[in-house]
Amino acid sequence: MEKALADMPGSVRAAWVAAMEEARKDILGSGTVLESKQYTGTYDHRYDSWDMAVELGIGIDAVDDGHATVRLVQHCAEAFDTISQVVSYINGRRLFHKVSVGEILPAGSRSSYSPENYTLHLRQVDGAYRTLQAAFEAPDGRAGRYQNLLRLTASLKEQARALETTAPAPAPAEPRAVPDWFALSPTEFEYAVAELCRKDGCTRVQAIGGAGDLGADVVAYTPDGRKAVSQCKQYRDKVASPDLQRFAGTVFNVHHADVAVLVTTGTVTTPAARLAKAAGIEIVHADRLDRWADGRDQPPWRHSHTPLPPEGGP
């Protein structure tokens, strides 16, 4: 390599040296050089290869006769030490680098490293890659199976489109009966709300209202796994702010609800509605309760926000 440098004109040599120094910083600067050797090789036109030591065959493509510097470098990345082979050589007065990763070790296990191990691992990596490439390119390999899968997918999509144009329209769902909410006792009302949750796909549904329930009359788990806690108010008039305040104080902190719902056969005052919106509590007032019961509205846990009831006064 020194002879190649000496044969260069001064300006070219200076530029080449500067480029080599930049490359050295970029490739070698962050690692530890474990081994560095100089090799001289001859380009064999018959085999389109460089006649050098056998372990360099993976690192060097066809070049002119010349010199090469081969370094084994250790780089640290998180919990691993990577051993790389960096081959630097001149071809046509240009500097080339070939970097091959041949060994990856757990961090701190450098004592197990040896140049011989590196060469063995490099050959194994290259052999495994060539085997994988041949398997992928084979007619019955992954590439062929992937193309078959694409054709099958296209065929299924075409069949689905054909079925969409010929399939009969689904029959409209039968409306569900709406109970007379005020014909029920308070306990029966809670069981009716629990049954609505169960009909709309909830699991582990419990009506647990009573003394000491701390505002949790119905507990259920929605189809997507969220915990829904409901308080039931069988009122003919309005639910006021104090009721909302008490429920808001326990439903999340004590019952750890993901969805909080206040169900009432009446409505709520405007301040209570604002408090519910701020606290993230869904309001199911009389009109919405009827629509939920007969299937014309979604269950409360599917709403992204609380639809507020009509203005209910102070």
Describe what you observe in this structure.
- The chain is α/β, with parallel strands linked by helices.
- The chain is built from 8 helices and 12 strands.
- The strands form 3 sheets. A 5-stranded antiparallel sheet has the order 2-1-3-4-5, with helices on both faces.
- Strand 4 and strand 5 (94-106) form a beta hairpin.
- Helix 6 packs parallel to helix 7.
- The longest helix has 25 residues, at 142-166.
- The protein is elongated, with a radius of gyration of 38 Å.
- Mean pLDDT is 75; it is low at 309-314.
Low-confidence stretches: 309-314
Q: Compute the gyration radius: what is it?
A: 38 Å
Give the beta-strand count. 12
Give the strand line-up of the largest sheet: 2-1-3-4-5
Residues in helices, as a percent range? 25-40%
The major pleated sheet works out as: 5 strands, antiparallel
What is the helix tally?
8
Shape: elongated
Beta content comes to 25-35%
Could you spell the SSE succession in H and E letters? HHEEEEEHHHEEEEHEEHEH
What structural class should be given to the helix and strand makeup?
A: alpha/beta
Cα separation of the termini:
92 Å
- Let me know the average pLDDT: 75
